[in-house]
Amino acid sequence: MTTLRLPGLVDVHVHTRDPGQTHKETWASATAAALAGGFTTVLAMPNTRPAVTDATTLATALEAARTGARCDYALYLGGTATNGTAAAALAPRTAGMKLYLNHTFGDLRLPDLDTWWAHLAAWPAAPPLVVHAEGPALAAVLLMAEWLDRPIHICHVSRADEIRLIARARHRGIAVTCEVAPHHLFLDETALARLGRRGEVRPVLADPSDRAALWEHLDVIDCFATDHAPHTSAEKDGDDPPPGFPGLETALPLLLTAVHDGSLTLEGLVGRLSTNPRRIFGLPKSDAVVEVDPDEEWTIAAADLQTACDWTPFEGRVVRGRVHRVEVRGTTVYADGKVLAMTGSGNHLREDHT
Ligand code: NCD
Ligand code: ZN
How wide is the angle at C-alpha 94 spanned by C-alphas 114 and 345, nearest 5°? Predict the structure, then answer.
């Protein structure tokens, strides 16, 4: 067996569902999945119940994380129509600010250009302001970022015209960074015949030419982020399937398979899953180590995964590369299928609340 030692990976886009929707996932199960997938830090999205939008809801969500997390973490605040200034005062306690400019799961979508502007104007340069912005919304928010001379991070870029626009913005000197989700790199709308309603995700699975464009513009992609968005199979198979895929345990094997196939370098993988996320989000150095066997071939099966989510869009997919051991602060936290880290052992990576 070959053993490759990678640094602890960082996932800047995770939905833990805790508090409020713990039948889908909890801090304990999401972070078990994170460790099994090689991620030793997760940044958690604010569309929980209640949504994390002010000091009170941040305290509630941080308490759930403090008692449940098995890996290190920080939490995003969500922008609302009215919290621009108050949210900015909480910035040092957060992973960043998340703005929803397009249709999504939950009720955090911002109504108009004035509210986008208010947040872009109020939020400091760091930690990052991150946006779900597709199509024309992407163009508008890049323009605002330029006018306000502020950095901006684009979540889950999925289409050819979007990645090209980001390349152009960067060429112009706009301080824009971006992430792409593995499901947009490894799946496209041709998978919908197999996935049916379970294929609902935001942004939607795109055209094969969009997927190809993401691979052609790897140099524009700063981070790979899972957008781990668990919903139960019963919910996905229901009349109004919520959008979202689990992804924490499939990201690294899929990307290691791409390294094996020659479409990605190992250096490029580590940069986008560890170095760049740490730099962009101002995260502390970590001694975490992930040991993988880059040659081991295995078949993805939801039944073998740590997430509470009972399905995966990659069921049956053969991948090459498997996590065998994860070490954090000198302690083995995951070994060969077993999560050893206790709940509550993860560190909060931002200023504490007390
Ligand atoms: C996310 C979710 O379920 O929370 N769904 C998704 O399809 N990506 C929403 C989000 O990422 O904003
Ligand atoms: Zn998301």
Answer: 155
